[in-house]
Amino acid sequence: MRRLVALALLLSACGGQSGEYAQQSQIPPEAIQSGYTFLQPETQALQDDDFANPGFLWVDKGETLFNQIPETGAPACASCHAADNRPLSGVAAHYPVMDEETGKLMNIEARINACRERHQDLAPLDHESDALLGLTAYVASLARGVPISVNIDGPARNYYEAGKDYFFLRKGQFNLACSQCHNDNWGKKLRGDTISQGHGNAFPAYRMEWQTFGSLHRRLRDCDSGIRAEPLDYGSATYMAVELYLAKRAEGLAMESPGVRR
Amino acid sequence: MKPAAAAALLCLLVPSACNQASNDRLASPVTIVGDAVPAPLEGRQGDAQRGQQVFTSRDSGHCLLCHQLASLDAEFQGNVGPPLTGIGDRLDAGQIRYRIIDAQTIWPDTVMPSYYRTDGLRQVGEAYKGAPALNAQEVEDLVAFLETQTD
């Protein structure tokens, strides 16, 4: 019997391939913490000070755009969203959501562009444009401090599963999964960076490495490029799905945008 | 235990059991003996000084991302992987070579990349398709460098 076991091991060993997926792992709910925890105190201080935090340049720009009547004379965002009428305070903490009109998952950026097309008769804004980042940052800032909670029931479930799949899929020339850094090795040093748990609660955020403000999808593209995987498109269905998975995974964590990161 | 891990363990316990296994997912054929790849890749001669460059350089191996090496005077050494100080006392050249070229066969769940692997990968970035992360010469330079790392 023992010989058989050894033989079986040997046979499987010789044709053995490492798995396509990383092992299932999870951060215990009581250990969930924001990327903020792992920042240098100077970076934390910058995020904490609304006057010094460079992200507020975008928030302010977004607020102006929000209240402005477009050149076409279309209604301003503010004319449909006021304190007593479809208020936006806190809503970003529950995104992404299913869009009833298209049946697709939609993040804040996509919602803003949908409002432009459907209610303002305006063209969608480009990904990473100052205008889209600004509006997104303004809306996200209205949810600062609100605990993340998202709905993954019904049709959103498929997106959640797809996002989870991507999180554990090994990919790129380095053949690594998101989970291997952010579930299995958070708190350790990757040269100058302390690996965080990979939550999206600070985004859109100002990143020193970018020397500018950017979206969560830009951050995801950096992580994919870091493992030498081909990054996906901004706004792609898969990154939307990852965004939903990350939000569910971070449930209860407070929204921080505009965050400041290394 | 995953098959490859079992294999590595078996190889450690009974080296003859795994004699002459081959690995066909790498950039050039290698022969695995026990837990080592004794022959230099493509028969190349390594150079320890160049190996130090490969080890530290951001555009090359950049092993410092995850490993510490006390002999180097470099800031911000990573600790995702074990320190490699004194590695030349613990492992021989063939063992070091195998760990650099295909650590993910030895430890299937490891975050250490398989630097000489080309096959069976997904979503590889356009700029990196078809080539290993380190070529045969760079691997041999690294082996030569790490062999000299004795306490």
UniProtKB/TrEMBL annotation, chain A:
Catalytic activity, per the record? L-cysteinyl-[SoxY protein] + thiosulfate + 2 Fe(III)-[cytochrome c] = S-sulfosulfanyl-L-cysteinyl-[SoxY protein] + 2 Fe(II)-[cytochrome c] + 2 H(+); S-sulfanyl-L-cysteinyl-[SoxY protein] + thiosulfate + 2 Fe(III)-[cytochrome c] = S-(2-sulfodisulfanyl)-L-cysteinyl-[SoxY protein] + 2 Fe(II)-[cytochrome c] + 2 H(+)
Binding residues annotated for substrate, in chain numbering:
R219
Its predominant location is: periplasm
Name the GO terms of the biological process aspect.
sulfur oxidation
Q: What UniProt keywords are attached to this protein's entry?
A: Electron transport, Heme, Iron, Metal-binding, Periplasm, Signal, Transferase, Transport
Per UniProt, residues of the Cytochrome c domain are 57-143
As for subcellular location, the record says: Periplasm
Output one GO MF annotation: metal ion binding
GO CC annotation, single: cytochrome complex
Q: Kindly list the positions annotated as binding heme c 1.
A: C77, C80, H81, C115
Per UniProt, the cofactor note for this protein states: Binds 2 heme groups per subunit.
User: Which positions bind heme c 2?
Assistant: C178, C181, H182, C223
Q: Which residues form the active site?
A: C223 (cysteine persulfide intermediate)
EC top class, as a word: transferase
Q: Which cofactor does it need?
A: heme
EC numbers on record = 2.8.5.2
Instruction: Give the family per the record.
Output: Belongs to the SoxA family.
Oligomer and partners:
Heterodimer of SoxA and SoxX.
Q: What is this protein called?
A: SoxAX cytochrome complex subunit A
TrEMBL record, chain B:
Fetch the SUPFAM superfamilies from UniProt.
Answer: Cytochrome c (SSF46626)
| Pfam families attached to this UniProt entry | Cytochrom_C (PF00034)
Organism superkingdom: Bacteria
Domain named Cytochrome c is located at: 46-150
Give this protein's Gene Ontology molecular function annotations: electron transfer activity; heme binding; metal ion binding
The alphabetized UniProt keywords are:
Heme, Iron, Metal-binding, Signal
> Is-annotated flag, keyword Iron?
yes
Signal sequence coordinates: 1-21
Q: Which InterPro entries match?
A: Cyt_c-like_dom, Cyt_c-like_dom_sf, Thiosulf_SoxX
> Which NCBIfam families does its entry note?
thiosulf_SoxX (TIGR04485)
Name recorded for this polypeptide: Putative sulfur oxidation cytochrome SoxX
- Whose protein is this, by species? Hyphomonas jannaschiana VP2
